[in-house]
Amino acid sequence: MTNRTPLMAGNWKMNLDHHEATHLVQKLAWELKDKEHDYSAVEVVVVPPFTDLRSVQTLVDGDKLEVRYGAQDVSAQEKGAYTGEISAAMLAKLGVSYAVVGHSERRQYHAEDDALVGAKAKAALAHGIVPIICVGEGLDVRQAGDQVSYTLAQVDGAYAGLDAEAAAKTVVAYEPVWAIGTGEVATPEDAQEVCGAIRARLAELYSQEVADSVRVLYGGSVKSGNVASIMVKEDVDGALVGGASLQAEEFAAIVRYQQ
Ligand code: PEP
């Protein structure tokens, strides 16, 4: 990678209430402080459920923690009669830095398509929130050897409404669905193949400068024991971590993969 700051983001999914959230963030911050972690060298983001965000904000602000936090989703709508939705403006008010959009679980269980994912990314960016745009193929696609074309079609769809200035601020997470929560991690070469193709596609759609500024993360059963071998790859700029981010020590070890 060039001079992109590695990003480690922990997606808690539908786990931990606001008391547990506070506890985990405190423990994580302590672990990292104990090891004198340099947050400017590896950025650290937790992505709790919506209901935890206010508590995490209070803790982060009160203790002046360098941990950032994100939301697991964001509405494509600005405001109004959209029961159950949370707007980007509301998240921005809570100091949210990132919003995951198009996670495979949302695509699968909430029928989100690329157009909606793109609209959510746009809504986030309009409020200064960086979208983490998730893409990645299922097992059938991988077995057919179509992982690159499938994933690039998702990239094309999600970026369709974004101009170069907006695109340059995004983060992409390549998350092969067959590796999420399964314990089956992509090989570093598999991860590089698709992450590299994503960057090349961004260069085609926009420019090399835009492509070089976008951080491309890998996600799928990342743990402290496998993260370093994946991070070595030139187009992998970090990880979106699910299960392993629920334990402070384990997530801290992932953040500190260089040690
Ligand atoms: C995820 O939910 O984005 C994810 C990658 O999960 P896990 O690390 O548990 O595979």
TrEMBL record:
Enzyme class: isomerase
CDD domains noted in UniProt: TIM
Catalytic activity, reaction form: D-glyceraldehyde 3-phosphate = dihydroxyacetone phosphate
Keyword Isomerase included in the entry's annotation: yes
Active-site residue numbers: 103 (electrophile), 175 (proton acceptor)
Residues annotated as binding substrate: 11-13, 181, 221, 242-243
Pathways per UniProt: Carbohydrate degradation; glycolysis; D-glyceraldehyde 3-phosphate from glycerone phosphate: step 1/1; Carbohydrate biosynthesis; gluconeogenesis
Quaternary organization: Homodimer.
Function: Involved in the gluconeogenesis. Catalyzes stereospecifically the conversion of dihydroxyacetone phosphate (DHAP) to D-glyceraldehyde-3-phosphate (G3P).
Protein name listed in UniProt: Triosephosphate isomerase
Gene name of this polypeptide: tpiA
